[in-house]
Design goal:
By secondary structure, the protein is mainly α. Helices cover 81% and strands 3% of the residues. Helix 5 runs antiparallel to helix 6.
């Protein structure tokens, strides 16, 4: 009896973990709404709504609004990624090639512990910044698609 109960708990936890990963991957609200809609909406309804909103994505991609959108997105993502990678790899590099981080900062706590803890904070802060910015990117992308739909898919 206990084995069966543990199996059910395992299944529930697995389902919750899968939903949590979908939530993490879909870091913006509108993408999460689209994913939920895709899972909830039936096949026929989804096909009907797509037929009403035909978009020529080749024209969208070649439009000046989309190019400006992608340039703005790159201006945000590339520096954020570079900062993350430098900050992340700085800990192993500094601990391997210097002794600075081994010195005490506060009592028995060395700078290594402070730097390592700050990496956790950095990840949360960068994720929060990205999610907020991704919301504005989603709105801008939706506006570009709506403009293309109004133009009939022509750039």
């Amino acid at each position: 009896m206990k084995g069966n109960h543990a199996g059910k708990i395992h299944e529930v936890m697995k389902d919750k973990l899968i939903f949590a990963w979908i939530h993490v991957i879909a870091s913006s609200r509108s993408l999460l709404k689209k994913l939920r809609g895709w899972f909830i909406m039936g096949q026929k309804e989804r096909i009907d709504s797509q037929e009403k909103r035909r978009v020529d994505y080749v024209n969208v991609e070649s439009s000046p609004q989309f190019k400006r959108f992608m340039a703005n997105k790159r201006k945000f993502i590339v520096p954020l990624t570079i900062f993350f990678l430098v900050f992340y790899f700085l800990l192993p590099i500094l601990t391997s090639y210097t002794t600075f981080l081994n010195t005490p900062a506060f009592g028995d706590i060395s700078w290594v512990w402070i730097f390592a803890f700050s990496q956790f904070l950095m990840v949360w802060v960068l994720c929060t910044i990205y999610v907020k910015k991704a919301n504005s990117f989603d709105k801008e992308a939706d506006q570009i698609i709506e403009e293309q739909i109004k133009k009939g898919g022509k750039s």
